[in-house]
Write a structure and sequence with these properties.
346 residues, alpha+beta, Rossmann fold, 6-stranded mixed sheet, 5-stranded antiparallel sheet
């Protein structure tokens, strides 16, 4: 374990506690009465207008095009994965081996850590729309989550989130109880349309608010959006605003090639690649179980070997515009995968 504090009289706990990112950029439906988040048919339950919380109403305003963003940030946190030219992880670097830039200007690294003993928090975001059922991928996606859960350490935490139509529902919050997660994973059924952009927008803020330390979003989908209110650009603005990498697992559908929908499949894959690239995660295209095992192994390796750096952004950064980040390791000798930037409200 390596943790270094590079700022005077600062502690990580106090720094993190001062990071308050409340970005309400698409909804999730809370538990619906005694039945929990699913109705009797295994679909995402609709709470109805009478049960809407203040957060739900703010989300609805967002989906009409009114972004709600509040930010008070001392440090910008930059998770990073470093590999050599052969793709092997580089694990022995210190803060002096990194150079961090914002909009081309070098920044002083004030926080640096690579803590292998801390738990990992992973939010599994499962596409349960009708296209996943028709393509036969929903069963494969569920099996992927089961495989991933079985390979987590006992103290790692997982949340299960599902989306269909314009609902993004928390099936289980972050927990170490695998039985509860598996119960809802088995119960949820595929139906409806795919609002992928809305899901991309809503999930990062929720994960970022609830968990500190090493965290990731694992999105499992066929990637074909046909129902979102938000554009991809607005969804990406949300995803880039928080320090949670997206690992996108896309399920290849060879039948689209036979029916002339190859471009549709390619466009869907490009969206998932963009989301992963912008947030510092990775994209995996799955054809068979071997691809799935390789993806799970790679994601786990990333999270186990992740560096986390932090710096104080210049006051001029609080302008609501995207600020681009660049991180260089060992004078460019190594490949660095990290978030491409961030957005702060004025």
């Amino acid at each position: 374990m390596m943790i270094k504090y590079l700022g005077p009289h600062r502690s990580f706990s106090s720094a993190v506690s001062s990071i308050s990112l409340c970005i309400l950029l698409a909804g999730f439906t809370p538990a619906a009465g005694d039945q929990g988040p699913l109705d009797e048919e295994g679909h995402l339950a609709n709470t109805g207008a009478s049960r809407k919380s203040k957060e739900d109403r703010e989300i609805e305003e967002l989906l009409k095009g009114r972004f709600v963003e509040k930010a008070s940030v001392d440090l910008v946190m930059v998770p990073a994965v470093v590999a050599d030219r052969k793709g092997r992880p580089v694990l022995n670097l210190g803060p002096e081996d990194f150079v961090l830039y914002e909009e081309g200007a070098r920044q002083r690294i004030e926080y640096f850590a690579r803590d292998l003993s801390r738990p990992v928090s992973i939010a599994f975001v499962l596409d349960v729309s009708g296209s996943m059922r028709m393509s036969g991928k929903i069963g494969t996606a569920k099996q992927a989550v089961r495989y991933f859960l079985s390979s987590l350490r006992s103290f790692d935490e997982a949340a299960l989130i599902a989306f269909a139509d314009r609902q993004v529902a928390v099936l289980t919050d972050f927990t170490r109880n695998r039985t509860e997660t598996l119960k809802y994973l088995s119960a949820v059924k595929a139906y409806g349309q795919t609002a992928l952009n809305d899901a991309i927008a809503g999930v990062p803020g929720m994960v970022n608010r609830q968990r500190q330390g090493r965290k990731a979003i694992v999105l499992l989908t066929d990637g074909v959006d046909n129902y979102s209110t938000l554009s991809l650009g607005k969804a990406m603005a949300s995803a880039r605003s928080v320090d949670v990498p997206f690992y996108c697992i896309g399920f290849a559908d060879e039948s689209r090639e036979l029916t002339g929908d190859k471009k549709l499949q390619t466009d869907a894959e490009n969206v998932l690649r963009q989301v992963s690239d912008e947030t510092g995660g990775a994209f995996f295209l799955i054809h068979d179980s071997n691809d799935m095992k390789e993806a799970v192994s790679q994601i786990q390796e990333d999270l186990r070997n992740q560096y986390v750096l932090g710096y104080t952004p210049p006051s001029s950064s609080r302008n609501g515009k995207f600020r681009r980040i660049a991180l260089v390791a060992n004078n460019g000798r190594y490949n660095v995968r990290t978030r491409k930037g961030y957005v702060l409200a004025p």
